Amino acid sequence: MIANPMLHVLVPLVDDLSRELPDSERYRRLLEAMRALLPCDAVALLRLEGVWLRPLAVNGLSRDTLGRRFKIDEHPRFGLLLAAGGPLRIAADSTLPDPYDGLVEGFHGQLEVHDCMGCPVQVGEKPWGLLTLDALASERLSQVNLQDLQAFASLAAATVSVVQRIEGLALRAEDERRRADIFGALMAEKGARPTLIGQSQAHLRLLEEIAIAGNSALTVLLTGETGVGKELVAQALHAASPRAARPLISLNCAALPETLVESELFGHVRGAFSGAVADRRGKFELADGGTLFLDEVGELPLAVQAKLLRVLQGGQLQRLGSDREHQVDVRVIAATNRDLAAEVRAGRFRADFYHRLSVYPLLVPPLRARGHDVLLLAGNFLEQNRSRLGLGSLRLDASARAALLAHDWPGNVRELEHLVSRSALKALAGQSPRPRIVSLSARHFDFSLTPESGAAAVLAAVDAPAASTAVPVDLRTSTEAHQRLCIQASLERHGHNWASAARELGLHRANLVRLARRLGLADKGAGG
Question: Partners of 126 in the beta sheet?
């Protein structure tokens, strides 16, 4: 029988199942109740996606944890918990590394987790994911009743079922699983992890557009700055389409000499040109029944644009050097970082081809418009580098998080990926013996900065104590400086709209204004 304290916690959560709440709020309340009742320092709800576990909600763990994808065979504790069939506490003296080492918030001196337990979450007859508890103190979780953890796992399963029913996913569960498996297989083939990661409004709007456009046969034109991830969006559009089981063929139009573009697109017959020693199919024929992704489409010569227009209109093409026509059924997704409308006005791009490509225009937002998504994406890249470098944990300290939030990211997600990779190597270099947990701080970052930039201020603040004989900054002053930087960066991203900044920072607007005034930031635009 569940004890009274447990009953008091579970009853409100069961009542929540019949209320209209955002998905994230349902998960947040569940984990908050677990932290309140059970003696642990962190809890997490993770969804099983093929060979990966993806955190959907965390409490007590760093924000970048939500951007990580844990490969099960690299984290044996997760494997044990999934295979347990019920609640399991892993022995406190286990030598198996814990996936959350270095990720528990608020414990800067101690980074290693010393006690953990978890329970598989079953939805219907199939495993859905994991519910995990972790503590930094050894034997702390020995007080947890396994039946209590099972009750929370059952409630988590009920919560997931409600979310699926509300979203209408229950009716399309098999189709959704099929597409998820295809997308996962696609990414595995490329040796990458899915990185369509984010919780910002800009990112959620993009996901909504992908769901709408993906389930159609319309030609999509992806626009956006360099490095925002247009190729990954194209992969997601294909995975969300009825063509997901068919090929996705990609061609970078800027990487080919003008003389070879036609051959690559349409193929050629033997003898069509010098070096054509055999018939060869082009990208359109290879993509028949599937999707063709034309990256950097703005680089195509005008003559090739005219021939592509015919294929897009009727699906008819001719191999180079042949009079025979081929019929193909191809869905085209194109991408460019150019302003094609301006290129049309300048006479460098065909107007009819532009209008044929932009049946469904889709703007991929820059990273600077995505708020705290930078930390989630950083978490994903940190996990990739942790695995590549053979480390137990690769984490961000407070100064690193502040610097990432303050930077304006002209190179977008690609710049962030490269920055994390370089910084991980720098942090590891020269350390002997080789550490199991590596912390990245702002001093490891090598932004190309102007002195006025927000990230430069963070780096200056970090480096100042080392270059000065002054008394070190106390914790409160350091914390307030970090809060000031985060609020300023959020206000700048949202055009000093306090309500939008408050939503991004996870605060009520009035609380944000009060905090800003205490920090000396609020102005007349903050209101009352």
Answer: 123
Q: What pTM value is reported for the model?
A: 0.79
Which CA distances in Å does 155 have to 15, 109, 123?
A: 11, 34, 11
d(CA 131, CA 45): 5
**Cis peptide bond upstream of 361, omega within 30:** no
For the sheet containing 220-223, what is the strand order?
248-252, 291-295, 331-336, 220-223, 360-363
Instruction: Tell me how crowded residue 22 is: count the other CB atoms within 10 A of its CB.
Output: 10
| Rounded Cα distance, 497 and 163, in Å | 31
Q: How far apart are CA 358 and CA 145, in angstroms?
A: 58
Cα–Cα distance for residue pair 261/255, rounded to 1 Å: 9
Residue 85 DSSP symbol: S
DSSP line for 137-171: STTGGGGS-HHHHHHHHHHHHHHHHHHHHHHT-GG
Q: Give whole-number Cα distances, 274 to 258, 277, 279, 321, 323, in Å.
A: 15, 8, 13, 12, 18
Q: What is the distance between the alpha carbons of residues 347 and 359, in angstroms, rounded to a whole number?
A: 20
Amino acid at 40: C
Write out pLDDT tens, residues 186-195.
444 444 444 6
The amino acid that residue 380 corresponds to is N
pLDDT of residue 466: 44
**Is the pLDDT reported for residue 450 higher than 60?**
no
